[in-house]
Amino acid sequence: MKNNYILHEKARSFNRLFSLFLFLTFSSLCNNTLALPKYKIDLQHLVSGKVTDSHGTPLPGVQIQIEGTQQGTITSINGTFSITSHPYAELIISSLGFIPQQVSINNRDHITIILEEDITQLNEITINAGYYSVKEREQTGNIIQINKDAIEEQDLPNPLAAIQGRAAGVEIIQTSGIPGAAFDIKIRGQNSIRSNGNDPLFVVDGVPFPTSTLGNAQTSSLIIPGLGVSPLNNLNSNDIETIEILKDADATAIYGSRGANGVVLITTKKGKSGKTSFIVNLSSGLGEVANPVDVLNTSEYISMRQEAYANDGVTQIPFNAYDINGTWDPTKYTNWQKELFGNTSFLTNAEAQFSGGGEYTQFLVSGNYNKQTTVFPGDFKNEKVSILSSLHHKTKNDKLNLQFSVNYTTDTNNLPATSIVREALLLSPNAPDLYNTDGSLNWENSTWNNPLRNFEGSYLAKSTNLISNAVLKYTLLNGLDFNTSFGFTQSQLNEIKTTPNTILNPAFGIGSEASSAFHNNANRTSWIIEPQLNWKTQFKNSTLEALFGMTFQDEITNTTSIFANGFTSNAFIENLAAAQNVSINENSEKEYKYQAFFARLNINHKGKYFVNLTGRRDGSSRFGSENKFANFGAVGAAWIFSREGFSKSHLNFLSFGKIRASYGSTGSDQIGDYQYFDTFAFSNSVYQNTIGLRPSRLYNPNFSWEKNIKFEAGLELGFLNDRINFSSSYYQNTSSNQLVGIPLPRTTGFSSINANLNATVENTGWEFELQTVNIQSDQFKWSTNFNITIPTNRLVSFPNLEGSTYSNQLVLGEPLNILKLYQSQGVNPDHGFFEFTDFDGNGIISRPQDNQIIKDLNPSYYGGISNTFTYGRFNLDILFNFTKQLGMDYVATTHIPGTMNNQSRDVLHRWQNAGDQTDVQKYTSGLNYNGTLAFSNYAQSDAAIIDASYLRLKTLSLTYTLTNVQNMGIGCKFFLRGQNLWTLTNYNGLDPETRSNTTIPPLRFITLGTTLTF
Q1: N or C: which end of the chain has fewer CB within 10 A?
Q2: Inside any domain, residue 452
Q3: pLDDT at 69
């Protein structure tokens, strides 16, 4: 384990820095002097005053500045101020949410200033809620918006990278540093027992975007975690204007079954009226693995191996122990992590955007080229080209509006067929050279498997993605609009994995007849039509909005997977016609149909009381005739109590206050197509030259929807005239009617039947957000955003759990993401091997009787803190994200210490002599059965679980504005960005975020670029 003293010192340093940060923040908020004057003026006159709103309520935090200088102050908690100035100077009074004023001192000693509320500024942020938009402060649901500034700071092509650490209640994990790998996203926890039933709905410009991969595990699983390239990588992050995340029932119920796990709305950039602009964005970056594992050097490794044989009583080193029997050089050392995945990844990005338009027509066209190489040796890379076009037109009377957008992307991902990360970590440090003198792979007389053999095979994925959307809006009557949205998406993926005979030792004499290739070709097309009626009217002090719409969606997926082998030459390995044997693993067409009716009614009374009612009736082809339709709905309410009279007189320290709550239901049909049918599959057996059919699934007409009941309560507060904003939310989501496989006796011919189980999963949690404007002057600004989520997940009920196939992985009252483990008693000081608690007392450590210890791998809390500094032409954004969690000890994920595998330096603290107190058992070469069994049990025990919490400098972006397009006719900005620059953690593996030692971790990237605007 890492040195505890160093870790304590790091923690103390972090606490000091955090305390200093709080002190500076508090000081800056309370400090009256904002800046020093630019030049000397006469400071002989002292003027005091008070600033109130139109109701006479004192306004704290109002900025008072002397015109032409940087000298100023802010009002106190009771709205008063004092400042020394020239007796006839002009004062500029400004505050967020109020109309600025300019007041002459005119030799007065006291001034009373009344600021008028600027309603447009208070509600200027508009949130996209999917089928409608709402002002941020008037929303009854829980919706988070990420704007383009935060999105553009990310160098990663996947737009989910922009959300990580910025959104409360949204847990995002980058699964790998391999180009094209996916991000895992959970919005308020895991609702479904099935691991593949928790994805949120993604909507791009109003069109549902399928994020389930078209890839096949047989082609990509050895290099990319999951089932292949993530479809979200086909979206260009620089084309995105905003990302909204819908979390509670009020926000998601209008999406019905599709919103059970939350909704992510992605809105691309649109043209704006005004001067035509041309923007060029160029950047280049370097990436590397940030935190390699600290493994043994050659002398330490050889000592470990020799000690292992001595412990096993072996005096004659075996012939196959090439690392220590003299076959390999005992003084040779190679850093295999550096050699095999320590290269530099190069990132190149070029983008051009042309936009503009007049009062009635606006347009935007942009193109992007993105290329990223890997950290593996060789010419592996991911290249992406995307085009976005958008056109908006309205008639002069504004009765007819047309919006059309098209987003097309092509992506080529060339990778090795197999990841060699784990092999690089385990290779002996004195293993032979990779190449012979003639440049061929070195097999060292068949004494090792050259790790570069894996690069003889390749994985190539070519994908295209089209998203198009057209929206027609026509005003039928005053306050009554008719909208129709037409969407079409098409995704295509062609991938091939080749395994040539050259991955094998040439000494075996195996030719190209053993070479093989796996092809996967998939295509998915989808269309959607959504007509809507929107009505808005006003009755005295109330505004009423109503929405009614329908959804018609159809999706067809075609997949063909082919395995071929027996090639006459590897030159033709990608050509199916050159194979001696060709077998079709899958040739299918799946169709998914979905239709729904939805409605919304919103009441706004006096701008203080809000009620939002939504409902949806969904129909899905994934369920039997008895349950094709289901109803979902929600109610949300909000009260802006800061607009009440009592608040202005008794709660004048508040600039804003709102209470909101919501309750409702959503559902889920994320089970796949045709799951309720009695289906048949082609048999592998041939009888009289005829391929037979075999039953593959039992019919269940009662197969129905998962149901998710959501409740939320929230409080939003603003202080110092909104210089400090705080919000908190409590949520409770209960998911029932779980779609799972019910176990059946083997005598039926089936192991299970897909059905609804009366199991219930509950997610509860607290979310807190804080935004502060710490300093705000003409020359210097500093703002902070902080969020933290404290989630809880548990299995509330599961009938007959002990008799189900889930009994070894689930426990009532515990979270879904748990491990059932043995209880370690540490290393026995007498014989030096791990020991464990024998709960059933039978003298054998075995499952399921003895794995009684439960460890929760869900995060205890997670969040992020960002700071934005602006000084003159410089802008600095810093984002930290953090997670409190557990993970597997690196040693437990490797082989037994003492075998022919390198180890972490943690194993140096092993047991050596009787009486030693340590947490690492003595070395064994694998010949000691008791030692081998003890280590196997250790890897399944609570001793293998360690702290994997981390604090990470996720993003750092420094921008310098050289020229401004408004003043100079050309705008020029330079930026320097960093990703994953620094991580504080106790985790001893490659990366605490992925908690994996089999794939490339998220890379540390540094990017330099420029933006030119004409």
Answers
A1: C
A2: no
A3: 75
Helix (H, G, I), strand (E, B) or coil at 611: strand
Domain that holds residue 65: 31-120
- For the chain, what is the domain count? 1
| Buried residues in 261-272 as b, exposed as e (16+ CB within 10 A) | bbbbbbbbbbbe
pLDDT of residue 158: 86
Residue in the structure block whose two tokens are 């994020």: 211
Q: Is residue 71 part of a domain?
A: yes
Give the dihedral of Cα atoms 306, 312, 317, 321; nearest 10 deg. Answer: -70
**Do the beta carbons of residue 621 and residue 590 sit within 8 Å?**
no
**CA–CA distance, 630 with 597 (Å, rounded to integer):** 11
Residue 256 lies in a domain: no
Is residue 62, in this structure, part of any structural domain at all?
yes
Q: Nearest to residue 596, comparing CAs of 202, 259, 129?
A: 259
Cα–Cα distance for residue pair 730/534, rounded to 1 Å:
32
- CATH number of domain containing 85: 2.60.40.1120
State pTM to two decimals: 0.86
The bridge status of strand 760-776 relative to strand 724-736 is antiparallel
pLDDT at 155: 75
β-pair partners for 413: 382, 461
Measured between alpha carbons, how far is residue 402 from residues 391, 394, 837 in Å? 8, 6, 70
Mean pLDDT, consecutive 10-residue stretches, the chain (1014 aa), reads 42 44 41 37 75 79 80 83 87 80 88 74 69 90 92 83 94 93 93 88 93 89 84 88 95 90 94 89 96 97 97 94 96 97 96 92 96 95 96 92 96 95 97 95 96 95 95 94 96 96 94 96 96 93 94 96 95 95 91 94 95 94 82 96 86 92 90 71 67 68 84 96 94 91 66 78 97 90 97 94 84 96 96 96 91 96 97 95 97 96 97 95 96 97 97 96 80 95 96 95 96 93
pLDDT of residue 100: 81
Those residues with Cβ within 8 angstroms of residue 964's Cβ, 6 or more apart along the chain or in another chain: 971
Q: Could you tell me which of 1002, 1008, 998, 999 has the C-alpha nearest to residue 977?
A: 1008
Pairwise CA distance, residues 86 & 671, whole Å: 74
Contact 946/987 with Cβ under 8 angstroms?
yes
3-state secondary structure of 398: coil
Q: What beta strand segments (E) does 568-704 contain?
A: 579-605, 609-620, 629-639, 654-668, 680-687, 690-695
At residue 958, the 3 state secondary structure works out as strand
Residue 801: the pLDDT is 86
For residue 323 the two structure tokens come to 């690392």
Convert 569-591 to b/e letters by CB count within 10 Å (16 or more is b): ebeebeeeebbeeeeeeeeeeee
729 strand-pairing partners: 714, 767
CB count in 10 Å sphere of residue 400: 13
- Which residues are CB-contacts of 539 (< 8 A; sequence separation ≥ 6)? none
Query: How high is the pLDDT of residue 748?
Result: 66
Distance CA 787, CA 768 (A): 6
Q: Mention every residue, 6+ apart, whose C-beta is less than 8 A from residue 473.
A: 400, 401, 402, 403, 481, 482, 483
Q: Are 516 and 563 in contact (CB under 8 A)?
A: yes
| Chain centroid to CA 347 | 21
Residue 942 DSSP code: G
- Residue 238, helix vs strand vs coil: helix
